[in-house]
Give the backbone structure.
Amino acid sequence: MRIGVVTFPGSLDDRDAARAVRECGGEAVPLWHGDADLKGVDAVILPGGFSYGDYLRCGAIARFAPVMDALVPAARGGLPVLGICNGFQVLTESHLLPGALIRNDHRKFNCVDQRLVVENTSTDWTSDFEAGQEITIVLKNGEGGFVADEKTLDTLEGEGRVVFRYVPDAQGRNPNGSYRHIAGITNERGNVVGLMPHPEHAVEEGYGPSLDGRGFFTSIIKQTLESAATA
Amino acid sequence: MSDTQTAPLLDTVEHAAATPDVEQPWAELGLKVDEYANIREIIGRRPTIAELAMYSVMWSEHCSYKSSKIHFSLWGENTTDEMREKLLVGIGENAGVVDIGDGWAVTFKVESHNHPSYVEPYQGAATGVGGIIRDIMSMGARPIAVMDPLRFGNLHHPDTQRVLPGVVAGVGGYGNCIGLPNIGGEVVFDDCYQGNPLVNALCVGAMRIEDIHLAKASGPGNKVILFGAKTGGDGIGGVSVLASETFDEGGPAKRPAVQVGDPFAEKVLIECCLDLYAAGVVDGIQDLGGAGLSCATSELASNGDGGMQVELSLVPLRDASLQPQEILMSESQERMMAVVEPKHLDEFMAITDKWDVEATVIGEVTDGDHLVITWHGEVIVDVPPRSVAHEGPTYNRPLARPAYLDGLNAAGTAELAKPQTGEEIRAQLLTLVGSPNLCDKSWITDQYDRYVLGNTALAQPDDSGVVRVDEATGRGVAVSTDCNGRFAKLDPYAGAQLALAEAYRNVATAGAAPLAVTDCLNFGSPEDPGVMWQFREAIRGIAEGCRFLGIPVTGGNVSFYNQTGDVAIHPTPVIGVLGVMDDVSKRSGSGFRSDDAHVYLLGTTRDELDGSEWAHVIHKHLGGLPPKVDLAAEQALGRVLVEAARAGIVEAAHDLSEGGLAIALAEACMRHGVGVTVDGLDAIGADAEGNSLDAFTALFSESSARALVAVPAGHAAEFEAMLGDVPHARIGATGGRDLDVVGHFSVSVAELKSAHEFTLPAVFGS
């Protein structure tokens, strides 16, 4: 079970994503932004951080990295890809997922233990959860407001491609102004998933708010083992 | 400045020797007449403009510690051999290094960036974080966490609303983007900081002991490499005097004094440096911070065994119009300097290329004893490096105990009106819990990433920040910074020891054994004998306190001139204590977690309300004497807290400080929404005759060496057996949704939280 973790200049949670893969029983394979080589991995994680400093629109430069030349066609061909935070931003910039992430509506960076509802358990990365399950994982970003036009939002909801929603607070607000409380989405095929919160920071007892993040990694590991068995 | 009318002329050493009588702007550069004369004597002629710039900035208070270093002998005199054993690198290097066991070394240091943060809050704070991170990197360590002790003026003053959001965004903007968890610090409001906010930044780094690197240039023929960001015109500050002289037309007349940070560049620099260290291609390393290339070249050469030659025109520039003396002064961020053996040069360059970091050989180590800097081949600096870096002036400034102290110490809290009924106590508790210094700080701390790197076991609002160092064993460190400036104002010796005691206690409540100390000494003007006396008393307090506790000071920083007109800030010696844990997953949090745990108050409570948060908030009063310092009691308390955490029987442990027992109880309840019933208040502070303190005093006194501990009922006997002669009282049990002080008052945790969380969003928006 080999899961690649891409490091762009300015990636920050890459070592954490690799640790989470190992904690959950997989092998983490470092992938370098400058190499258009996926090293034959079974799945890829685009980690959190500030790729290239994100002084331009978040993810806008990372999208043009050589590794993306290999990753985009592979993802279109069914390779499981998880984009976390900055990785989600890179996926929307690469048009592997629709919509965009904009500055939080309160205009501040925000680091909190965030409650989410898992709505879609048929993706490669969420099959170990139960539909409607509430999880608490870390959310930390400055530009996490998910936006898209009404038609796209309707399509995402109509096709069940909203994978995670924020549990709104007592005033009905979510932590960054995301439309329809959307925290994470998937593509039509269910192999590419992007979300703003960080499952890799909720996999070890004593570090992070819960162990709820493990489900992402156990899902993909089981998924890949099953597809290997049937191949 | 006599020759502003002449065309720009390169002031070479040769030219300087031939024109001894040229009038030089030494006063504008902040040098005293005897300092200038001293420079002329050292080099045997008038300095060139470049040399003058170098000496002026390296002999400034900030770089040379000229007013403070005469008192630093107190550190050495109070460091025993036993304390030295834990020190791998002590005071004087970029940061101190201590041995935490299993072959791991940890380096940590706190520094100030006060003045730039007042002028330009965002960049001032951001580059403060960036600067301390580079200090830690230059020891060979991977930075693993940051903390920020911050002090602002009145929360409701309009200028606080300019300074605070900018500082917080700057700390967060830099730290978040560079990927270091911010695990704690302080936020304090007091009118005395209105014109002088304090922005201190602490960084912790870890490495294997064999990987420690030092800032020295040795080995003639070894290459001197400047790498990282290009050099620009930012942060030139005082040297703008020279800029305006040489750029009388066509160029920028005035250079910005505050540096601009680029955290992305520094993140890449961290990874690049760690690759360079791992490859073993770095012989000496130094970060570029205050005084830029002047500092890096002179310190590296001064610490080495030879000289150094540098060709300044090779320095990559962001602004081609920079003059050589400006290049020497520039404080452009995200730059490092390495000394590399020629045989390792290709490998060094391959690694910097991989990270797209620009690296340029700008000179080499020589077998001479001078630092020689050329500009297109012409010599513009030729000086003994020690005279620049280490042999600056030393002042023994006059010091005198301020005359106001007698009156201040006599005006204690005895006459202040105290609440008489349970309802009045309840009302004052709600006021205090929402007061600026005690209110919920998550509006600030939620702007910082506390999780990145995946090793954070504890962060604000718990008593200390705790991070794992060794993933295999869980070995790690706890760090806390503390200082109550009001106590230091009343008595700087005791106040400094109380700051040390509080940080020591906060590390112990987390379950870590205190090991080492760093300090950031924020004071007013050293030219005021009263301030200088405060400074001397504070250093003496810290040094003697550390000796008693057996934990060495490993390094730190002095910030003077924190005053507006004649009015200085409270003396604010911020103390950072670092402790070690074998396994950080056993750390104790500060909040009650479950019902029916026994709640103990450890330590002795006295009638000590002078300088307290209660007096400050309810009566706007400061006077009297600070609480008694009892370091033996701190040690005994610390031993119990560490032993109990190791045994895994602590449900919660929380130190008592500002606001006393009442606030500690409220905070422990609010952390996880679990209440407490306190029925043992009458036992607190009982004397030999059985007279105990009244409920108000028991709840709000700020006696030191105390902690609140919750222990599951099943472990109570085991815990009590550990207590030895530490005074203790079982004061209640956890459970319910109220803070219920039986016979006096009850308040719901929800009401406490509502008062606690209202304050900052009401001022700064949600």
